[in-house]
Input
Amino acid sequence: MKLNSNTIIIIVVALIAAAAAYWYFFTGTGNQPPLSVSTSKSQAQTRFQVLANELQPISFNTGIFSDPRFNALVDLTTPVSPESTGRSDPFAPIAGVSGM
Output
C-alpha cells in the first residue's frame, strides 16, 4: 500500500490537532477560570468607588420644563396609516398565471 504526499500531510495535521486538543483539555491549562477573584480591593476598585461617590451630589435643574419656550413646543408626529397585508404564502403560484 503506497501513500501519496497529500494523505501523509492530512495524517500529520490530524495527529498534531489531536495532540493539541489532548494537551489543552487534559493538562489543565484550559480549565482555569477566566477571571481571578480577589478578596482585597484593588487600586482600580478603589478609584471607581471614589469616582462614584463624587457623582452622588449631582443634581439637575428641572426649570426648563416650566419655561414658556419648552411649553410652546408642538408635537409633529405623523400618524401611520395601516397597510394591507401580503399573501399568506408569498412563494405559492399566483392564481390565473400559467406556469412556464
